[in-house]
């Protein structure tokens, strides 16, 4: 009997052990099955991240745009014979917008402006003149009677040649004759220069800049003010009754002397007619946009009919 009890107890223990072992195997197989279903990417060998990548990680894969730095001073333009048309929409000047005429950025030291202006090429000076003609074409055409922008370019190139040989940094004279730039715009052209100067309030379409070093020594403003100064004398020439070529000749002599009624024919020929002849050289020979230039007294200039193109 004792032996039978031991055998029975042993059988029960073996049965329990088998049952426990079977349950453990089933759980292990179930867990293995579930793990495979959670990682389908393992079939391709690529792990699936458990959290979303950060923005920094994504941005590394994206192309990065690097902004081009804005130069602190006007860049030097390449010299060539091909003329590039400049859109005038952004260059239009009104009495309420007075910084579009500057060649150098606001705040450029005067010494820097003068040094850089001295190194401007003839073609760069031509570009400054062209910009001002484009920006103020309406008032220029009305006041001076020029038939086209090409004539206006040539006219002011002739004037800049007679005044400075296209030198953007030329400074001459003192007091009322103190002048600077390609057109040698003088102090009286500017506002608030000297209370003894006659005011020039008759060109509201163009900004009249105050007489300050930052304005006076900027070549863009100097050209702008030279054009404005001439238009002031064009109004006086017309009021004095001059017409035709005499009108433009006396406007020019007024710019040079301060008096449009000057009757000195020798000086009218040496100054006004010389400008007309020089302008004709630029216009007829097609040198409005390139680096070519002439000079006062050059034998290459035809002076037989200085205003034949006008």
What is the tally of beta strands?
Answer: 3
What is the CATH C level class of the largest domain, in words? Mainly Alpha
Number of helices: 10
Structural class, by secondary structure, is: mainly alpha
| Average pLDDT number | 78
Low-confidence stretches are 1-10, 12-97
Describe the global form.
globular
Rg to the nearest angstrom? 41 Å
Describe the protein's topology.
Elements lengths: L1 H37 L16 H5 L50 H8 L4 H14 L1 H8 L4 H16 L6 E2 L6 E2 L4 E2 L26 H4 L2 H21 L4 H14 L7 H20 L26
Antiparallel strand pairs: 1-2, 2-3
Describe the structure.
The chain has helices at residues 2-38, 55-59, 110-117, 122-135, 137-144, 149-164, 213-216, 219-239, 244-257, 265-284, and strands spanning 171-172, 179-180, 185-186. It has 310 residues and is mainly α. It has two domains: 2-43; 89-284, Orthogonal Bundle (Lysozyme). A three-stranded antiparallel sheet has the order 1-2-3. Strand 1 (171-172) and strand 2 (179-180) form a beta hairpin. Helix 5 (137-144) packs parallel to helix 8 and helix 6 crosses helix 10 (265-284). The N and C termini lie far apart (146 Å).
């Amino acid at each position: 009997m004792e032996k039978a009890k031991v055998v029975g107890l042993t059988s029960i223990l073996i049965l329990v052990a088998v049952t426990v072992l079977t349950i453990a195997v089933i759980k292990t197989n179930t867990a293995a099955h579930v793990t495979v279903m959670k990682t389908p990417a393992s079939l391709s060998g690529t792990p699936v991240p458990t959290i979303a990548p950060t923005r920094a990680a994504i941005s590394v894969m994206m192309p990065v745009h690097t902004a081009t730095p804005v130069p602190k001073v006007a860049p030097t333009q390449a010299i060539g014979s091909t003329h590039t048309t400049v859109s005038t929409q952004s260059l239009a000047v009104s009495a309420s917008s007075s910084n579009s005429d500057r060649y150098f950025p606001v705040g450029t030291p005067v010494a820097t402006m003068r040094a850089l202006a001295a190194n401007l090429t003839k073609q760069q000076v031509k570009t400054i003149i062209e910009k001002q003609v484009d920006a103020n074409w309406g008032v220029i055409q009305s006041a001076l009677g020029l038939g086209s922008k090409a004539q206006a370019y040539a006219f002011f190139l002739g004037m800049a040649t007679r005044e400075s040989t296209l030198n953007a940094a030329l400074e001459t004279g003192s007091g009322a004759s103190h002048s600077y730039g390609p057109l040698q715009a003088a102090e009286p052209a500017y506002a608030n220069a000297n209370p003894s100067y006659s005011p020039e309030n008759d060109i509201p379409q163009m900004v009249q800049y105050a007489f300050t070093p930052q304005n006076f020594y900027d070549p863009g403003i100097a050209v702008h003010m030279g054009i404005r100064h001439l238009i002031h004398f064009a109004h006086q020439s017309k009021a004095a009754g001059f017409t035709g070529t005499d009108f433009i000749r006396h406007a020019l002599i007024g710019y040079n002397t301060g008096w449009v009624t000057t009757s000195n024919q020798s000086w009218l020929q040496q100054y006004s007619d010389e400008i007309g002849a020089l302008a004709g050289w630029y216009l007829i020979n097609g040198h409005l946009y390139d680096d070519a230039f002439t000079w006062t007294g050059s034998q290459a200039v035809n002076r037989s009919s200085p205003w034949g193109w006008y």
